[in-house]
User: Fold this.
Amino acid sequence: MVLAYAGLAAVALSPWPQLIGLAVLGINPVWSAIGADARQLWSLIGVIAMTAALAVATSATGRWQLLLGVLLTCALAAYSARLVRLGIHQAGAFTLMLAAYVMVDPGRAIDGIAATMPLWRLMLLIALVPGGCALWATVVTRLLGRGNLPTPRPVVADLPYGPLLGGLASVFLAICLIWFPGTEVWWVVLTLVCILRPTRAETATRERYRVYGTLLGGIGAGLIGWLVPHQPVWIVLGAIAIAVGTAINLNGGPYWKWSTLVTFAVVMLTFTPQTVLDGDLTRVAATLVGVSLTVGAMVFVDRCWPSLRH
Assistant:
């Protein structure tokens, strides 16, 4: 498991250590589909790299960014909906999360690099970081975990998963791009992606556990950031947390544990000692907003389309 995350160390030691958050988000989709057919995984890795490149390209289109960003979001939501029958829809949703991260660019990490190279090189770099880390994690895990990986199970949806994911994510993304570019408010999109599922029962469970996990992980990360203001220590702790969280998720462990560890890891891996407390609080607040809006959307669907309840 630790070896599969060696790509994160490579990014941390590269000339672009600020892209480590992008690397983490590139690995998430393949982890959620790691037991799928090999052809599906290779296709997914290609989609991850292409999505990252297209997302960063939208940032160079000026006033067209919002429209192109929404179109990309809707396309990825449709892609996720197609994967429901294969039981790997979360991989598509995580790829949508990656696109939102690149377009909103929290902390202006990508924007800072953009000033140093032409667009085509930036697109290549932003594609290679998540795509390369996803490829490495897939190859290592498939080789070392052969015969012990969970087999995806098809899901019978009782929610209009694709339209809900695309509609809500597009609204949240538009809010971020118009009023909160370069901030951690993009965590609202992440929250939606993590809790919305094709079934009501699983979505309702994740709504509760996402709040618990974010609060626990956020508080823990905030305390570490205050007591141990040394970023190399944070990178080690973050990598350990995300590896343990992935193991819990792959073995069907409680979602709140995964949510706690991933929240802790992302905060540790994406902030500096100067920004960790503000960023941590913003992410906790964005999670509460994201959960509330998702619950509201579920109530709206139930009342407007009662035929979808069965």
Observations:
- The chain has 13 helices and no strands.
- The chain has a mean pLDDT of 90.
- Residues 3-309 form one domain.
- The CA atoms of residues 93 and 185 lie 18 Å apart.
